[in-house]
Amino acid sequence: MSVYFVSDLHLKPERPDLSRAFSYFLNSTAQNASELYLLGDIFEAWIGDDAPTPGLEEVLTELKNLSDNGCKIYFQHGNRDFLVGEQFCKTIGAELLPEQIVLSLPVGDAVILHGDQLCTDDTEYMQFRGLVRNPAWQKNFLSKSLEERLAIARQLRDTSKQRTTEKSEYITDVNTDAVTQTLAESGVNLMIHGHTHRPAIHKLEDATRIVLGDWDKQGWYLKVDDSGYDLVSFEID
Ligand code: MN
Hints:
By secondary structure, the chain is an alpha/beta fold. The chain contains seven helices and eleven strands. The strands form two sheets. A six-stranded mixed β-sheet has the order 4-3-2-1-10-11. A five-stranded mixed β-sheet has the order 5-6-7-9-8, with helices on one face. Helix 1 (about 15-25) runs parallel beside helix 2. The relative contact order is 0.18. Manganese (II) ion binds near residues 40 and 41.
């Protein structure tokens, strides 16, 4: 049983190289997967399952094929694609997971999450997160026309980009207390998340925190099987 994890691909029409790399990953490495976890920010933006997805057709078909061939695919929301819904997940044969969940893996139990919820030092972001994860806000947003949604999304993104540049490295990384607390509440000693774009395997006092990498010049995935875990990177060209 091989379980694969990816996050933070940030797929968008302007980066066909990333979609190609993901296609390649799905047609090669992921063919050995019994389970594939998409841990958020697979898409750079998502304004509703009814919006067109230019440049992603191939990748979405390949995800569906992988699922049809017996690989279980799971999707967790990131801070950019948190509006991915059940309808979309159905089209790629994926199951939508809650924002934090404990899995039973060949190496033991692990808590998995996108990771933005661990960045509690960024109080401004946490406030924003509270707003946009509110079902009432989402319902209202999704009731607007595609044009209106695009405009709002663009505005939110510009503001966030500007603020992130002003923030220190420390503020945009995970808060260690939030990590400790999440591990304790979950009753596990392994955590897997993405979001921070700081891929690493952190050995904590009595736990391990694996951070997935974002896809840019390099792609990243985590493979977990009976022999252990392996955080792998590869060139994207
Ligand atoms: Mn993220």
